[in-house]
């Protein structure tokens, strides 16, 4: 049997089509804005992570205090690889070098890596825009440079660049690939093979750092601590790049504040709409009371109304918001302006559910006042004065 | 106000046959001297700023089961306050109101609601039907409050409407699609929905033309004959002729 409170609430909603549409629309628009901005926020956060944390080594291991190098590194690399949660490790030897091509000279970092392991940690291969990353594995005399570096030096694939440094063995290396990360590294970091780097700096088989990739990048501090317990220095990406976390935190806070205000406005819309409904229904409420409806029934009727309006608004707003967000996501941005092809948009089921639930509950809460007001009407006055 | 056609005799006989059951009970009740409504020195005082207004100033009377009573008084005499007392919508400032032998002063809100639901059927001057509901649904509402099953209440509501001489084609009309007399018939059917022992009417003919008003009063008379205690509050002396008993009220006091 349908509860009569629901029956009467549905009648009210149906009888006042215009008000119903307006209040559902008010809630719906607020939910839509929530949905879209939530999708943007999630999108930008994900973009930020993929631009940074995705390519960043999650943990960097450096030599013990007082040492320049990590000797006998294979041992420690094995140990680290056995730590639960470490999915890749890449030992490297990095130093400074001077580069010369034609009349152009430049100083930049020279990083000797094992190409496939470096790729496993930092997804270096994904950033290659020209040439072949794997050439680094095949030929010792290869170098990979950033697009900014190549531009400054007027270099292209196949060109030979002279590399030298005090106390180092000068060498001529062929550019086999050019990468673009969209960061400052494009100008200041070059890759060669680890073996070649050890030759260049004239060292034995040593390294001066290991970068790690973790299954869960949020565990960076925990795992860095475990490595420190082995006697090496280690730091997580949150310690190496605190500005990324700070940016995300500021983004999140400012977004949540804005979203909260939007929700508040929507809820006030519901309160005032329902209040109007109560005012216009005073006499009817009086009649229902006279005919034997209990006060709790009257309260329940108006709570149902606010809940239903909220739910309808939330569902419609969500549909509109998701559609809008996804269609904005496909809109192409002018190339190269923001370093993005399109506005990053991520719609997550969890967000959708959360928003619908919060809006529904908020509306129920907003309905409490008008419902209480209706329930506390005096039937005598309600019938005689209206 | 549009006039309605008077009902054919056959319908009337049928109706009386329909309520024959409660009629037997009523005859028994008629013989008992047990009052169904009892007021003892009832005062109702409204405070308006610093002034105290005595809407009722020590009213005492009793209404027997099965009686047809008019409570006469001009506007401002306190008759509406009296109606609210009997209808369990308001409580006295002092004194005692007993409905069906229950002392109202001992009840809380929910208790009053229950007494009202089971004992009183209201008929108003303005009909006070719920505009968003059809005639049938309006009659069903009090039964819904009383927890009747949908099938039973639909059947009963149709019988009630028939009993109140509403042509059946109006059962699915909304109040604004009916004449005043038809609306009042729906209101009477609604008032009777839970078989209350008391029918409380506030100026039931006030918004109707003379002929329709007469038909409505005749209907009330028949319901009374079938056992329901009818109490009509009015300022119209013409309604006196339908009643067995008349209580006159003036300035918050009984004068006769």
UniProtKB/TrEMBL annotation, chain B:
- InterPro entries tied to this protein: AAA+_ATPase (IPR003593), ABC_transporter-like_ATP-bd (IPR003439), ABC_transporter-like_CS (IPR017871), MacB-like_ATP-bd (IPR017911), P-loop_NTPase (IPR027417)
Report domain ABC transporter positions: 37-256
Can you name a GO cellular component term? membrane protein complex
| Entry GO MF terms | ATP binding; ATP hydrolysis activity; transmembrane transporter activity
Q: Which terms are listed as keywords in the entry?
A: ATP-binding, Nucleotide-binding, Transport
Q: What domain of life is recorded for the organism?
A: Archaea
Per the record, the similarity remark reads: Belongs to the ABC transporter superfamily.
* PANTHER family for this protein: CELL DIVISION ATP-BINDING PROTEIN FTSE, LIPOPROTEIN-RELEASING SYSTEM ATP-BINDING PROTEIN LOLD
**Annotated protein name in UniProt:** ABC transporter ATP-binding protein
């Amino acid at each position: 049997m349908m509860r009569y409170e629901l029956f009467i609430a549905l009648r009210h909603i149906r009888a006042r089509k215009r008000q119903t549409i307006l209040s559902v629309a008010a809630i719906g628009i607020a939910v839509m804005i929530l949905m879209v901005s939530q999708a943007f926020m999630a999108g930008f956060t994900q973009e930020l992570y993929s631009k940074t944390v995705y390519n960043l080594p999650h943990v960097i291991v450096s030599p013990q205090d007082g040492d320049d190098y990590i000797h006998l590194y294979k041992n420690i690399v094995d140990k680290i690889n056995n730590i639960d949660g470490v999915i890749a490790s890449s030992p490297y030897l990095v130093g400074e070098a001077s580069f010369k091509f034609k009349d152009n000279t430049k100083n930049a970092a020279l990083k000797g890596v094992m190409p496939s392991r470096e790729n496993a940690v930092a997804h270096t291969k994904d950033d290659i825009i020209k040439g072949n990353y794997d050439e680094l594995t095949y030929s010792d005399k290869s170098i990979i440079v950033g697009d900014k570096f190549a531009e400054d030096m007027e270099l292209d694939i196949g060109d030979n660049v002279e590399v030298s440094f005090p106390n180092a063995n000068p060498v001529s290396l062929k550019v086999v690939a050019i990468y673009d990360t969209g960061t400052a590294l494009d100008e200041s970091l070059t890759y060669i093979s680890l073996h070649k780097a050890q030759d260049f700096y004239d060292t034995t088989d040593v390294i001066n750092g290991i970068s790690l990739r973790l299954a869960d990048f949020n565990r960076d501090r925990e795992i860095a601590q475990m490595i420190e317990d082995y006697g090496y220095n280690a730091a997580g990406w949150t310690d190496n790049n605190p500005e990324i976390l700070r940016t995300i935190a500021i983004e999140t806070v400012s977004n949540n504040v804005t979203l909260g205000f939007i929700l508040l406005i929507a809820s006030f819309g519901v309160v005032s709409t329902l209040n109007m409904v109560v005012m216009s229904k005073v006499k009817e409420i009086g009649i229902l009371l006279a005919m034997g409806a209990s006060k709790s029934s009257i309260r329940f009727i108006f709570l149902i109304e606010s809940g239903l309006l909220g739910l309808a608004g939330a569902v419609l707003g969500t549909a509109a918001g998701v559609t809008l967000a996804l269609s904005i996501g496909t809109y192409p941005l002018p190339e190269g302006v923001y370093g993005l092809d399109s506005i990053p948009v991520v719609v997550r089921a969890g967000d959708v559910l959360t928003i619908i639930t919060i809006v529904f509950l908020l509306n129920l809460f907003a309905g409490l006042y008008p419902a209480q007001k209706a329930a506390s009407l005096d039937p005598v006055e309600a019938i005689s004065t209206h | 106000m549009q006039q309605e056609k008077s009902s054919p005799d056959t319908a009337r006989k049928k109706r009386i046959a329909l309520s024959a059951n409660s009629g037997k009970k009523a005859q028994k009740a008629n013989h008992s001297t047990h009052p169904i409504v009892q007021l003892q020195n009832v005062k109702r005082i409204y405070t308006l700023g610093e002034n105290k207004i005595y809407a009722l100033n020590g009213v005492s009377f009793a209404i027997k089961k099965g009686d047809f009573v008019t409570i006469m008084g001009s506007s401002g005499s306190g008759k509406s306050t009296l109606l609210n007392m009997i209808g369990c919508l308001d409580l006295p400032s002092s004194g005692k109101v007993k409905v069906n032998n229950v002392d109202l002063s001992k009840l809380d809100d929910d208790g009053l609601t229950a007494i009202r639901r089971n004992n009183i059927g209201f008929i108003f001057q303005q009909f006070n039907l719920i505009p968003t509901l059809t005639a049938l649904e309006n009659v069903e509402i009090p039964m819904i409050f009383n927890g009747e099953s949908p099938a039973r209440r639909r059947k009963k509501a149709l019988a009630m409407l028939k009993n109140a001489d509403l042509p059946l084609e109006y059962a699915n009309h909304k109040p604004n699609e009916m004449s005043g007399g038809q609306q009042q018939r729906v209101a009477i059917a609604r008032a009777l929905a839970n078989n209350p022992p008391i029918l409380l009417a506030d100026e039931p003919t006030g918004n109707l033309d003379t002929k329709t008003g007469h038909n409505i009063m005749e209907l009330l008379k028949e319901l009374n004959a079938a056992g329901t205690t009818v109490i009509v509050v009015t300022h119209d002396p013409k309604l006196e002729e339908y009643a067995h008993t008349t209580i006159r009220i003036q300035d918050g006091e009984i004068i006769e």
